[in-house]
Design brief:
Blueprint (H helix, E strand, L loop, with lengths): L13 E7 L2 E7 L2 E6 L2 E8 L3 H9 L1 E6 L6 H8 L14 E4 L2 E4 L4 E12 L3 E13 L8 H6 L27 E3 L5 E2 L24 E3 L1
Antiparallel strand pairs: 1-2, 1-5, 3-4, 4-9, 5-8, 6-7, 8-9, 10-11, 10-12
Length: 215
């Protein structure tokens, strides 16, 4: 089966935030959908291995922050390629707290939900949530997964429903292709990679130039 067909389905890119006791935490998700309009409710799919999964289970609340095409890719790196178990993901991220849940400022809208049910799959929990609050922020058009993949040149975190295990090998291997070994971002700037300053960092996961490998 050609798993690339799933990329033709419509996905967004979201920060799913919740509480770890009194500490704010969260992860990146791209499988969020509205279930009903009255009462307004949504569903979000979170991998069992994501620390956010158990935190939503315990807190009974989560927020969906909708990332835009203008969102700093570093937001995706922070929430998508680090674990909230051993890092404070909101440290250094400008945010506001609404209904007790942190919302990154760098988004175009948010929905805060209380958990009303869940469905279990082999690898993911689908949390159902009734919306308590929500608003648009106006930070540009919402980012789609296709935009993230084709324009930002980002890859799916390994726990994302859309992760394709061999996607790192789908790009042609050339001497001029440099890839971040952490998040698989492909550098395609006008300046040859070797000529970039040592201070260069991956725009997605903020790892240093030394983490890039030649494909």
């Amino acid at each position: 089966m050609n798993k690339n067909v799933f990329r033709n389905l419509s996905y967004g890119v979201y920060v799913i935030s919740t509480l770890d006791g009194m500490r704010h935490t969260g992860c990146i998700a791209n499988s969020v959908m509205q279930i009903t309009s009255s009462p307004a409710s949504v569903a979000v799919s979170i991998n069992h291995d994501n620390y956010t999964n158990s935190c939503i289970e315990k807190s009974g609340k989560f927020a969906v922050s909708i990332l835009s095409e203008n969102t700093d890719p570093g937001i995706i790196g922070t929430f998508g390629f680090r674990s909230g178990k051993d890092s404070d993901k909101f440290a250094g991220i400008k945010h506001q707290v609404i209904e007790g849940i942190a919302i990154p400022d760098d988004c175009c809208g948010y929905i805060i939900c209380k958990v009303t049910g869940k469905l279990e799959t082999a690898t993911h929990t689908i949390f159902l949530g009734e919306a308590l609050e929500g608003d648009t922020i106006g930070n540009g058009p919402a980012m789609t997964y296709a935009y993230y993949h084709n324009v930002v040149k980002g890859k799916s975190p390994k726990n994302a429903p859309t992760y394709i295990p061999d996607e790192a090998d789908t790009s042609p291997e050339t001497e001029d292709t440099w890839v971040c070994s952490i998040c698989r971002y492909e550098y395609d700037g006008a300046i040859p990679f070797e000529e970039l300053p040592d201070s260069y960092v991956c725009p997605v996961c903020r790892q240093p130039k030394s983490k890039f490998i030649r494909q």
